[in-house]
Amino acid sequence: MTRHTKMTATTLDDRLAAAFTDGATSDTVAALIQEAESAARAAGDAAEQAVSRLRERLTQVQAAEEDDRRRAAYEEARAERELRTQGRHPRGRAC
Description:
By secondary structure, the protein is an all-alpha fold. The protein has one domain. The chain has helices at residues 3-6, 12-18, 26-85. The protein is rod-shaped, with a radius of gyration of 32 Å. The protein starts with a helix and ends in a 10-residue tail after the last helix.
């Protein structure tokens, strides 16, 4: 296998692994460093975007949970009020 054949890997992981073989050249390793740094920055940007979207989603979910809690409390109070207007105590006792 020639040096060129060893360095024609298709994925970044393959090229990184090939950089540690005997067929690696300094030019190839230097170019790979730049590529890996660019990939790391891109991954960092993607991770930051994911965290930002997750924070927005957390706010939405928390608001929905609070709405559900308030709706349940309202429904309970409304049912109790209706029972009282009918002259019944919500816990089975007379008012």
